[in-house]
Description:
Blueprint: E1 2-7, H1 10-20, E2 27-32, H2 35-40, E3 42-43, H3 51-60, E4 65-68, H4 72-75, H5 78-84, E5 93-96, H6 98-105, H7 107-116, E6 124-127, H8 132-140, E7 146-150, E8 159-162, H9 165-176, E9 188-192, E10 197-205, E11 210-212, E12 217-218, E13 221-223, E14 227-230, E15 235-238, H10 245-265, E16 270-281, E17 284-291, H11 299-302, H12 310-318, E18 333-341, E19 364-367, E20 370-372, E21 378-380, E22 384-392, H13 395-406, E23 414-415, H14 422-425
Parallel strand pairs: 1-2, 1-4, 2-3, 4-5
Antiparallel strand pairs: 5-16, 6-9, 7-8, 7-9, 10-11, 10-16, 12-15, 13-14, 15-18, 16-17, 18-22, 18-23, 19-22, 20-21
Helix pairs in contact: 6-7, 8-9
Adenosine monophosphate binds next to strand 7, strand 9 and strand 17.
Amino acid sequence: MNIxxxxxxxxxxAFAWKIVASxxxxxxxxxxxxxxxxxxxxNAALNINDFDQVASFSLxxxxxxxxxxxxxxxxxxxxxxxxxxxxxxxIPVIGPDKLGATLEGSKDFSKNFMLEHGIPTAKSATxxxxxxxxxxxxxxxxxxxxxxxxxxxxxxxxxxxxQSHEEAAREIKSxxxxxxxxxxxxxxxxxxxxxxxxxxxxxxxxxxxxxxLPEAKDYKRIGDGDTGLNTxxxxxxxxxxxxxxxxxxxxxxRIIQPTIKGLRKAGMNYSGFIFIGLMxxxxxxxxxxxxxxxxxxxxxxxxxxxxxxxxxxxxxxAHETLDQYALEIDEEAAATVVMVAGxxxxxxDKGDVISGLEHINKALVFHAGTKRHENGHLLTNGGRVLTxxxxxxxxxxxxxxxxxxxxxxxxxxxxxxxxIGKDLLSFNFNQ
Length: 431
Ligand code: AMP
Ligand code: GLY
């Protein structure tokens, strides 16, 4: 089959790598892709939020399946668009429809969904600008810290954890009244702070049945020891030591099953991935957020642990036969380290020459912000540049291979965290 994959990050390179490894894939196009996807597939210079463009490309190239990497085309309704046009209806889009994507696109919507379906999450209240007086009064007597969340998509920046009532009152005003995060904060969810340790669980569903993919933990802050600014993710590991069989059973019973039932009940057309951000609070799981896509860099540790045919899984999702698909997971651990341009997540340079990739032997390198110059040089082309994944018998061994790979790669002002996974190597279950 001919497959079109939308996106351009490390996540999409990992998807592309799994897709082209399948005998079911005849031809893979990645739009817009990066220098890594260009090596294994054909890049297509499309604006993935321009659905007319995606549609005419799909018809011209006889595309049989569309896989959506990032959330934006889903939140904008790419699936509904393809279903609404008779000539396009035969091309399945992996992902939810617009209603399903609202689980990520609106925190208030996802809170109501969880409440309605009895899914454990932090207690919350939602406010709009006309309720500013009540909102300030509410946060001023809330337990500390108090969590403020912009309702809409805010490029991962819309969550503030306030340590004092004064800060909370100031921030809720700047979110609701001054629109600190634009229209995304024209509604704010005020939430109880959950004390615990975070992990991400990934589920793939055809809308009826589901499979649980390997769980992962990511490292969001730019600096070692979880310091500095938040980023899209600086590294990830899988499996997660504190995600015991007992804990994962609770996640399945209390969260995954009611979520899948809830999607159906709400009338969502959902055939794709669900990324559930969880807090482990004293051994009990609580949902922090839903994403309607895979995580980045989590995908770069989750996909290398899937042994069964990935395209067969996507086909089963599209054809609602996922219950017949045998998902096989590799027992080996995976760890990934994101190499970023110095200055990221603030200002950084692009166009620096990357060298050393030819010396990598025991690691997988997934490209994110890279491009190939006409002269053959590989150049940095974004803040997150490369993701280097190691696999091994343990997280420690996987990290060893990942870091051995990282150390062979250079460019001017390269930066990466030196402590990915280190907290888990000496994890104390009683902490
Ligand atoms: P979100 O965009 O909802 O994933 O939130 C971003 C980050 O803020 C999460 O990954 C958590 O680290 C943190 N966070 C969000 N909600 C809470 C909460 N209720 N309690 C504690 N931390 C939270
Ligand atoms: N790594 C977090 C995310 O993809 O949202």
